[in-house]
Specification:
By secondary structure, this protein is of the alpha+beta class. The chain has helices at about 15-25, 75-85, 120-130, 135-150, 165-185, 190-200, 245-250, 280-290, 295-320, 330-350; strands at about 35-40, 45-50, 55-60, 95-100, 110, 210-215, 220-225, 230-235, 240. It has 2 domains: about 15-110, Phosphorylase Kinase, domain 1, CATH 3.30.200.20; about 120-350, Aminoglycoside 3'-phosphotransferase, Chain: A, domain 2. A 5-stranded antiparallel β-sheet has the order 1-2-3-5-4, sandwiched between helices. A two-stranded antiparallel ribbon has the order 6-9. The protein has a two-stranded antiparallel ribbon with strand order 7-8. Strand 1 (about 35-40) and strand 2 form a beta hairpin. The mean pLDDT is about 95.
């Protein structure tokens, strides 16, 4: 919870102005509202609102303060949930989007409330998902991603969401730049980071038709309903167009497989007993989409390498003192960077075998 005193009213919202806007623009909701803070969602200011008739919804705006241009992109999230609402991809109902910062200092949108919960760790899985339901949950998780990757972005008005070609190439450029520029501050380099980057550039599979890639698809960004199936996918703010197999590999990474040399971390949401293997999930995706997964290990390796680069950048900021490292286990973080490179190397060694 932030330090904001909720007794002063919802953080970041001019309640009378927002409620007047909703009254004028969203016929389904009748203010005044009862406001309740919701946690999660990348520090966006997210509240559950309940109107005078008991109808519930969710309102989201970026955090207060200066933001990076693409961080907390409300319009991107809005365009995705409003476009995908007509497809087989479960998303919250899109009620309304306010593009005028005059109302409450930032763009915000209102979406339907979903009866569901994300899974962040193994404790939540054990508490919320009985073992007999875990296979169905995992299959629903992968079927939902398959459904997303079957959507033609041009047909639903998302053709301009991002550049369509060379998704992996662009990511390699971004994250390699991040790695090289963080070496000095992190006091950490590893020849494998450079060797792998060259390998990925030289062996890049041909990208098929661009699809919407969520970018952070995992059990933490799915709301699982009372039936333990995906009721909605949330947090679309880094979604773009690109190679669906890169999105798939990222989504598969947290799931265990008998071939693993390193077990899934025991605190992970997918570490609990009763889930299908990563191979079973990949096979199911292939069956649902008809996609050729013979190069999947290339994408698994790429995602592990990218994880190493992301962690390396964060680690550099801690070592440099740009972020407070209080309560952060820096030696463990360093190990995670090296472990991600090891896993990338292992995946690359499996390509074509």
């Amino acid at each position: 919870m932030s330090a904001h005193d909720e007794s002063l009213g919802p953080e970041g919202y001019d309640v009378p102005a927002v409620e007047a806007w909703v009254k004028a623009n969203i016929a389904e909701l009748a203010p005044p509202f009862k406001w309740t803070r919701l946690e999660g969602g990348h520090s966006n200011l997210t509240y559950q609102i309940e109107d005078v008739n008991g109808q519930q919804a969710v309102i989201r705006r970026p955090p207060q303060g200066v933001l990076l241009p693409k961080a907390h992109d409300m319009s991107r999230e809005w365009s995705l949930i409003s476009a995908l609402g007509s497809t087989g991809v479960p998303v919250p109902k899109a009620f309304g989007f306010c593009e005028s910062p005059d109302v409450t200092g930032a763009w915000f949108y209102v979406m339907g409330l979903i009866d569901g919960h994300p899974l962040y760790n193994s404790e939540e899985t054990e508490a919320l998902v009985p073992e007999h339901a875990r296979k169905d949950l995992a299959f629903s998780f992968i079927d939902t991603l398959a459904a997303l990757h079957e959507v033609d972005p041009d047909e639903v008005g998302l053709g301009d969401l991002g550049k369509k070609e060379n998704y992996v190439g662009r990511q390699l450029k971004t994250w390699y730049r991040s790695w090289t520029s963080s070496i000095e501050a992190a006091e950490l380099d590893d020849p494998r980071a450079h060797e792998l980057q060259r390998y990925f550039l030289e062996n890049m599979p041909e990208q098929g038709p661009a699809r919407v890639v969520h970018g952070d698809y995992g059990p933490h960004n799915c709301l699982f309903g009372p039936d333990h199936k995906v009721a909605a996918v949330v947090d679309w703010e880094i979604s773009t167009l690109g190679d669906p197999l890169a999105d798939l590999a990222y989504a598969l990474n947290p799931w265990a497989d008998p071939t693993d040399t390193e077990p899934v971390p025991p605190e992970s949401a997918t570490a609990a007993a009763g889930f299908p293997t990563r191979t079973e999930l990949a096979d199911r995706y292939a069956l649902r989409t008809g996609r050729d997964l013979s190069q999947l290990d290339y994408y698994v390796g790429f995602n592990r390498w990218k994880t190493a680069a992301i962690l390396h950048g964060v680690y550099a900021r801690y070592v440099e003192g740009k972020k407070s490292s209080e309560d952060v286990d820096l030696p463990e973080m360093r190990e995670r960077i090296l472990r991600a490179l090891t896993l990338a190397e292992q995946a690359v060694n499996r390509v074509g075998t």
